[in-house]
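[recover] target loaded
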C-alpha cells in the first residue's frame, strides 16, 4: 500500500488520490434542509453529517462555500437533517443536482418548528444552529437537536463514489 503524507498533498497532482482515499470511508446519506428568506425550502445532499454530543444533543455537517445553497444555510437559524433510506437514491441525486427545482414533486412538509422535512426519511433531526465554523473551503454547522423522529428501514450508504446497501455481518 502506498502511503501518502498528508502535508505533501499537491492539489494539482494528487487531488484524485486524496478524494479516492476519503471515499473509502463509508457514510450514510442525508438531505439537509432549511427555509429561504422568501419562504421556499432549500435542500442539499450531504454525507458530512455526524453526531457530536449527546448531552446536550449536538450534530454537525459541512457545506461548501461555493454551494448554490450556501446563503440559505448561512442565513438560516434552523436546519433539518433527513437521513435517506436505501430506496431513496433518487432523492440523493436530485438534491445534489444543480439547476433543478429540487423540491418539485418531492413529498415534504413544514414542521411545527419551521423546518422542511422530507416524507419517508429514515430519521429526521430538526436543529437550531448553535455555531458556524469556517474551515477551509467549507463551513461547519453545529446544530442543537430540537426534535427528532425515526422509523425502521434500510439506510442508504455512500462509499467509493457509489451507493450501497448494508449487509449485517
Ligand atoms: C452522496 C453525496 C454527499 C455529498 N455531501 C456533501 C457535503 O457533505 N457537503 C457539501 O457541501 N456537498 C456535498 N455534496 C455535494 C452537494 O450535494 C451538491 O452536489 C453540490 O453542493 C453542488 O450543488 P450546489 O452548488 O447546488 O450545492 C454531496 C453530494 C453527494 C452525491
Amino acid at each position: 500500500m502506498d502511503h501518502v503524507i498528508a502535508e505533501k498533498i499537491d492539489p494539482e497532482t494528487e487531488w484524485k488520490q486524496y478524494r479516492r482515499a476519503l471515499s473509502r470511508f463509508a457514510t450514510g446519506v442525508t438531505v439537509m434542509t432549511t427555509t429561504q428568506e422568501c419562504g421556499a425550502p432549500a435542500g442539499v445532499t450531504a454525507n458530512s453529517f455526524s453526531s457530536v454530543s449527546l448531552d446536550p444533543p449536538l450534530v454537525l455537517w459541512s457545506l461548501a462555500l461555493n454551494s448554490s445553497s450556501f446563503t440559505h444555510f448561512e442565513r438560516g437559524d434552523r436546519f433539518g437533517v433527513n437521513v435517506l433510506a436505501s430506496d431513496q437514491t433518487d432523492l440523493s441525486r436530485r438534491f445534489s443536482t444543480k439547476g433543478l427545482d429540487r423540491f418539485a414533486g418531492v413529498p415534504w412538509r413544514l414542521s411545527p418548528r419551521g423546518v422542511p422535512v422530507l416524507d419517508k426519511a429514515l430519521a429526521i433531526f430538526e436543529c437550531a444552529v448553535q455555531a458556524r465554523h469556517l474551515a477551509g473551503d467549507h463551513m461547519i454547522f453545529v446544530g442543537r437537536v430540537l426534535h427528532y423522529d425515526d422509523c425502521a428501514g434500510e439506510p442508504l450508504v455512500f462509499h467509493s463514489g457509489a451507493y450501497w446497501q448494508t449487509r449485517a455481518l
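[recover] notes: The pocket of flavin mononucleotide is lined by residues 29, 44-48, 61-64, 67-69, 92, 96, 98, 158 (CB under 6 Å).
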